[in-house]
Amino acid sequence: MSKKNKNSGACKPKISKLGATALVVILGVLSVYAGRFIVKHNREKISAQGEKARAKGNPRADFKIVEYIDFQCPACAKGSKIIRDYVAQYPTRIYVEMKYFPLSQMHKFALLACQYAQCAARQDKFWPMHDALIDDQSIWDRMLNAETMFREMAGKIGLDKAALDACLADKETEKVILSMKEHGKSLGVQSTPTYFVNGKMSVGIKSLQAELEKYFGPVKSPTPPVVSTTAASPVPSTPKSAPEPLHLLQTPARQ
Known about the structure:
Blueprint: E1 2-4, E2 11-13, H1 17-53, E3 55-57, E4 63-69, H2 74-89, E5 94-100, H3 110-122, H4 126-135, H5 137-140, H6 147-156, H7 161-169, H8 171-186, E6 194-197, E7 200-203, H9 205-216, H10 246-249
Parallel strand pairs: 4-5
Antiparallel strand pairs: 1-2, 3-5, 4-6, 6-7
């Protein structure tokens, strides 16, 4: 049935209360799914941006490493330095991607360190932050409040403070990190550092080093430090005294 509009002469459909209720329910369901889609899309966008920033080397390299890292893990720090040396010598043959696996039960600053690294990744400065966290791990690991040092690192590598604070306050930052950790668990990751070398899981730095040496051989020794060419002032030698006569060095026999 249609009801004629007296003013316009148009026919206006008559909607029952049941139909109106159904329409509201449908619109509500659609809005929920739309909201979830937007959140998922934004999270994937953030994750994709971070993924690109958290990788280095040649994407077409024949040797690819995916590492699940806890920045407060001492073995992770050693492993990162090993990878750094190999990448420096074989920049076109190695591709490295970092994923987060904070062991918060063991390391109280692990999640916070990942948050700073992820926020640095949003500003395309993941690797400078990564290196700062790794190189000074033995210092901030013992601090009561490591965030003070994290902020100093962020300033030194040139992070925008306003963008950093907004990123740290954004709940999506933590969700991306924990989502990465859950994905690692689904692949069998239980501890750090865990690496996937060309898809093969390698747990611990000894396993990683064995794979690297098998493929590339031992890493070459780093360039020795430059020795100063400034001649040191000669130290005047003390003239040796003449040896004592033999009869004075002998112990006299008892009578």
